[in-house]
Amino acid sequence: MYAELGFIAIGGSGGGGYEYLLYPHRPIVAYDTETGQPLSEYCVEFPDRQETAYGHRLPDAGDALAKWMSLHGDERNLIAGANMHLPGRQVDPDQLRRDLRRMREWEAHRARSLA
């Protein structure tokens, strides 16, 4: 998904109703799975403490993967420790809608390919 779309989607552990889109070096965006409406943005940072030649940022794919691993491993603590913002502060809601549409098309194409 990341290689083709540039983001990762992951379901919330609290059951249905919401999921997250994970963009590299941008907030985690929670959205309503039924309406596609953004719910909130969560700012987290995963600095690269080992590699200083290129700065302290993880590579793009590494940042998205770190968010996925953190949400998958301990969603509650990651969200509790994040800086929460109202939707639309850093990720344009129109971009979110386009990305959700692209994701549904990608999932449908993938399902047809696997069938």
How are the SSEs placed, and which strands pair?
Blueprint: H1 2-5, E1 8-11, E2 18-22, E3 28-32, E4 38-43, H2 60-81, E5 83-85, H3 93-114
Antiparallel strand pairs: 1-2, 2-3, 3-4, 4-5
Protein model, in words:
- The protein is α+β, with helices and mostly antiparallel strands.
- It has one domain (2-114).
- It is 42% helix and 20% strand.
- The chain has 3 helices and 5 strands; from the N terminus they run αββββαβα.
- A 5-stranded antiparallel β-sheet has the order 1-2-3-4-5, sandwiched between helices.
- The longest helix is centred in the middle third of the chain and has 22 residues, at 60-81.
- The chain is globular, with a radius of gyration of 15 Å.
- The two termini are 18 Å apart.
- The model has no long low-confidence stretch (mean pLDDT 91).
Features of the shown structure:
115 residues; alpha+beta; 3 helices; globular
